[in-house]
Amino acid sequence: MKTGLLLLFVTIFSWTTAQAVIYSCRDKHGKLYMTDNMQTLPAECLGRTQMVETEKSDNLNIVPSQETPQGSGHEFNQAVRDAEQDLKQKQALRDGLLREAQQLAEQYQQALEDRNSATRRWQYAGSRDAIRRADEQITQIQQRKQQLLTEINEQNIPRKLEQEIVGWLDKIDE
What does the alpha-carbon distance between residue 87 and residue 111 come to, in Å, rounded to a whole number? Predict the structure, then answer.
């Protein structure tokens, strides 16, 4: 009976901890802070926090903070909400960059197929226009690829996501 209760407790506890959101930040002295409660972060970290993917971190140990930052509760809570909203906006931007890279790669492949198809049926009317339209679309896609690469370099994007986006963009020839 005790073994069954212990197993149930461990199962429930491991599930709840795997679903937690972990925030991390380094202060101006380089000290790393990691927590599941943004209110325990120092005030200087509130605008610069990052979410940690806990499901992929086998050796991540979470230690609760020893002290809570001082300040008025309402102002601090608002700062925490603002920081969380900022994190959500950054994640939405990153997701948008990945989606756009995938769409550009797909559009590029379709434009190549359209151009090759028009080249094969050269004797039919409209082939020149179809090739011209495909070439224009390919040029626009290549230009947008360069813009996306610039945006990626300007953003603070995790390396794994950056590699995935660049992998999609590499499918677009120069």
Answer: 36
Dump pLDDT digits (tens) for 73-125: 778 788 888 888 888 888 888 899 899 999 999 999 999 998 888 887 766 66
* Cβ contact 50:33 at 8 Å: no
DSSP string, 143-166: HHHHHHHHHHHHS---HHHHHHHH
Lookup: tokens for 159? 């390396």
Q: Are strands 22-26 and 32-35 parallel, antiparallel or unpaired?
A: antiparallel
Residue 43 DSSP label: G
Phi, psi (rounded to 5 degrees) for 3:
-65, -40
Q: Which pTM value belongs to this model?
A: 0.53
Give CA–CA dist 92/165, Å, rounded.
14
Determine the straight-line distance between the first and last CA of the chain, rounded to whole angstroms.
Answer: 67
CA 26 – CA 49 distance, rounded (Å): 8
